[in-house]
Structure formats: C-alpha cells, structure tokens
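As a warm-up, study this chain.
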Amino acid sequence: MPATLDKDEAEAAAPHGARQRGDTYDPGFFARVVESWPAIDRVLYPVYAWACVLYAATVFYGYMHVQTRGGWSAPLDDVFIHFDYARAAARGFPFQWSEGNGFSSGNTSLLYPFTLSLGYLLGFRSLDLMAWAALIACISTTFFLVVAGRACEPLGRTTKYLVPPAVLSLGALDWSLFSGMENAFHLGVWALMLLPILSIGKTLDDPRAVRRDGFLAGLAGALLYATRPESVVCIAIFAFYAALLVRKPLGLRAAFATLLRASIPGAIVAVAQAVANRLFTGEWAAAGAIVKLALNHPYMNGEQKLDEYLSHLKYVVLRNTQHHFADWIPGQNLPWGWVVPLVALIPFFSKKTRGIAAMLWAQVVGWLLLVSLNGQVRWQNERYTMSAVAWLFILAAMGLGVLLTPAFEATRRARGLFALRIAIACGVVVLYGVHQAPNMRDQIWFFGRASRNIRDQHVVAGKVLAERKAKRVLVGDAGALMYASDLPGLDIIGLGGYHDLPFARAGVNGLGATIELLERIPPEDRPDHMAIYPSWWGDLPGLFGRRLVGVPVVGNVICGGAEKVIYKADWSALDRNGWPRTQREGERVIDELDVGDLVNEKAHGYNFPRPGMGFVVHRVLPEPGQRLRDLFDAGRIVPHGEPERALMNAPRRGGRLVVRTVAGRQVAAEVRADGRLLGKLEARPGPTWTEPSVDLPADLAPRFELAITPVEGEWITYHAWILEDGGAPSAGR
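Now compare it with the structure written out below.
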C-alpha cells in the first residue's frame, strides 16, 4: 500500500465495516507499523522468548516445589557434583571436588561450576544454590532461543516466533534444561558462537568485519569446549561452515584464515585441559572419559567396544523418536515420533535455509555420534542427547516456517499449494501435540518426584553424616551427600579425585584395584565413614564396614537404590608392612610387585593378557601364622597358558621370588626371567594365603622381565617380591 493515499483511494482501501459505520480510516497506521516492525521485533521477540521460557520453568519448578513442599532440590544427584565444585571454587579451591583433595578432572564442564560459584558468593548457599542454577538456566535458554531465531530470519521476521514453542514443547528437553545440569548453559554458550557465525554471512563485503567475527567465534568456541568437551564437534562444524561462507567472495586464503580463527582457541583449551590433567592426575584423559567411555574399558576387545557403541547409538535415536517425541507401541501405533526429524528435513527444500540447515544437521548427527561413546548416555533421562534434540527442534521450527511461507505467485496452482502446505503444517502440529501432551505431563511429574527423591535420600543422608561429625566419607556417587554434609570426601568411582591416585582407572579395573589405592592413603586421612548403596559394591561394606543407619527413599524413580546406608569404616585389614610372611632370616626385599595396585603396576611395566583376561579380584583372609588378623590383597586372574609380565630388579647375590596367592584347587605356574625358565610355583587349596617361591640365580640382568605363566589351572598373583640373600629383614614396603 502506498505511504499516502488520496481521499477516494483511502475510502476504497478502508475495511468494509469502517465504511459502513462512517469511521475515519487512517491508512498511514498500517504503513507505520510495517516501517517500524524491525524495531518492534527487536524488542518483542526477546520478551516473547523470555515469557515462553519463564512459563515452562514455572511449570517444572512449580511442581518440584509441590513435591518438596516448597524447598529447592534437583532431579539428578549429578547436579550437586557441580555444586560441590562450585562451592570449592568459591572458597578458593578451584577445580577441586572436595577441598584438600587436590585437582580433579572429574567435572566434565570446566566453566559451568564457576558460574555457579558466583551465585554461592552472592549468598545462594545450601539448596538455594539451585535457585541460582534455575536463573542461569532461564537466561541461557532465552539467549539460545533469541540467537536461534536469527537463523530463521531468511524466511522472514515472523518465522522465528515458532522457535520458542517448538523447542520448549518437548518435555524431556525441558526436564534437562531446568534440571540444574549444564545443558541450558551449554546451549547459551553454543548460541554465543552461532552469533558471530551468522554475522559472517551478512558482512562478506567487509573483510575487517569477517576477521573480527572469526576471532569472536573462536573465543566463543573456547568457552564452548570448556562447557562441554563434546562441543569439539560443534566448533569444527561452525568453523568449516564459516570458511565455506567466506570462500566464494573472499577466496581460499581468507576461508582458511577464518577456519583457523574460529577453531584454534577451542583447540588450545582442549590441549591445555589435557596437559593439566597429565600434570596433576597422571592421565591425559579426564576422569569422566576414563569411567564412562567403553574405549577405556580394560577388558573389552575392539569388536565388543564397537558393538556397545552401536547399541548406544541405536538407543539414543530410537529412545527419542519412539519415546520422547511420541510413544510407539509396536503393532498398535505408527512411529509418529519420526515426524519431528522429517519436518526438520524440510529446510533443505528452500534455498534460503539450505546452508544453515546443513550446518545444524551436521551438528545433530555429529553430536549423537560422539555422545554415543558415553556408557552413561542411556541414563539421566537421556540428557546427554538433549543439545542435539534442541538443534533438531530449531530445524523443525524452520521446516514449519518453510511450509508457512506464502508463495508470491498469484496463480491458482500456487495458492492451492500454499493452502496444502498450511494444512500439512497444521496437521503436523496437531499430531505432535496429541502425542506430546501425555509425555509432557509425565516429564513434569518425573521432574518433581525425582527432585523429592534426591532431597529425601541424598540430602538427608548428608545431614546425618554432618551430625555424626565424620572425618572423611567414602561415597560411590559424588553429589548431594557431600554437598549437604560439607565434609571431606573420597569418591571411589573416581569422578571426585584424590591427588594423583588413579581412582577413575581403578574403578573400571575392579573394586580390588580401588581398595589397593586406599592403602596408599595415609591411615589418618582414610575415610572413617562410608555412605553407599550396598548392592553396588559387592562385599565392600561387609569386609570394611559396620552398619550404622539406612536412609530410605519412598516412591523412588531416580536414586540408585531404595536405601542409602551409612557405615563406620574399618580399614585395619589394609594396615600391613608389605613384606612376605615367609621371609627368611637374612633376606631383604629389594623389589615388590603389588598386582591390582595400578600405581605399582605402572612402575613395573606390568602387563596382563588381554582382552577379556586379567580381571581384578580381591580377598580378605587370615594372615599366615596369625589367624586372628585379616589381610587384604588384590590380584588378577590369569588363564592357563597366558603369561603376565613385569620388569623387576634382580638380586645381586642370588635370592628368591616369593609370590602370594590363594587357590581353590591345585594350581601351578612357570616362572621365566628374560625368557629363561627358572622353575615352577605351586599352590594347594587352603583357608588362607600361601606364598610359594622360586630360587633366583645371581647372574640375572639388573632389570629383568619376569613372566609368570599358568600351566595347571588359572593363576592369581596377588603379590610378588624379589628377596636377596644377606642383610637385615625389611621393615617397610
């Protein structure tokens, strides 16, 4: 419509009702709205996105408070791991799970705990820190929706208004965003990198602006990797997409420079994290990667690892499409959940959105491929997949926008096709809404009930420990227990960390390897209490604990067991001097191999046969010659014909190899030194430890390879000593 009309034109253009009523019609009003719409839109859309987020958050947190009777909690114990790290950082112990335990790589997100620590410093203490986490989640999610809306603007300014309801319509995604985990914060930082990437596409005629945006994207990429290491996929795809945008107008050299600017800062953070891990923990990998990735499993072969990976990948795809998007009951319903990814493919049919759609789809696929390496991807309401799900719903909103974008041709066929597209879009929305409504209701209920479960069991157990004034607490799930008790802790899964002891790697080797590391902790610093699920840890509580109290949970949907049990710990079976009980007068220990102790194994270059062999086992048996005193030791099961090897120091004047073992039936093993047969170890069934020995000649190399090969049954070496003739008996390890 022209900006100005004469009187006759204005009357003709006025609404029919206005002409009948004789009302004055101002044709300039609509023109002014159209002209000022960009300015209105810049304010309206963020307010609209914030309102959508606030409504969703109010629903989830509101029902949490119904379940917890007005108190704050969280639906996952892992939320409190972030809180543990945040509190330690606020108190001046950054990167520590428990103050005094030293640097820990167990928190997957480096950056998120520091944002939480700011809230702790501002006064959000105890469970109120969850209120601060909720505020961060709402701000981060709103920022994500605002920036994601810009990706839809090639279809017009109104299409982006589909993004907030689309993203927030999925109950499982809302559950993760408002859980207190780093999911929402991660999406906010992801949007921080998307912003300069989109800007590059609009400033290709200005090389200086392209360079500036490339640097900004790189800085955001560094923050993104520090938020979630899986974001390496996002950084690479963002950088490659930016390079493709730049290549045609500015040339290959500018494209390569953009690629480097956008990717190198993230790579620097990744290398810095690995170096810090190595310096402080002795491992290049983070503790979470060691514990959770099948790639680091010590007993699996390549085929088994691939099978597990493929099963995880299949699970994450089907769990979302056949459960979270829409329930699918084989034989009763069609798999309606596949409608979401199908609609998310529609942007490929529009030239305006094809490029951005390819970039987002690459991140969806790349993220799912990467997180499927994580053995925990099946748990925690599939939160590890939810970043990809959020990007998928941006694509779905974009797909609806393509369907709803009107055709400019005035032909009857064009109008008919547009009407058909509108009908398809409306049908898709109704179909999805019908299937998602019960899922949303279930997720809201699950959020509230899980939050109550964590409060009733983990938080209560933590308060019980605080009342008992425990010195240090051994836990199997580092989270709300330690946060609520505010006591020093030891996490035997390994995510908490204790100085440079490899608890994470010991955890995947077996419980015996973990207990071996406890021997290395000074007696005065060992945990005096345990708070664990008995079913998780086999005979640990029976061997080393005395039950004090159990903390049950009613209507459990999230906790690892129906009862968290607190024990008084007794590690007296670990208190030993480390010499063989068959040591003769005049012999001295010159070398000691403690099988199952990963630190000692590493120092001796110990190798057990792989894969599927060398499992760690442990026993607590009466000490030879002292039937009233128990003695703990761990070893590895080695099958018939397979050697275990280690580098040992040789005696200068001849001596003996003494091996501690225990057998349920007659067993024997050959002993070789640098391939030279020295003799045979034999063990008979008995109620306690036995220590057979083999004589060692004086002409061995100063550092020789010891090989013990079972020749009768399977053999378990728990401990091995090299003893040399002469000198006083050793008095220590």
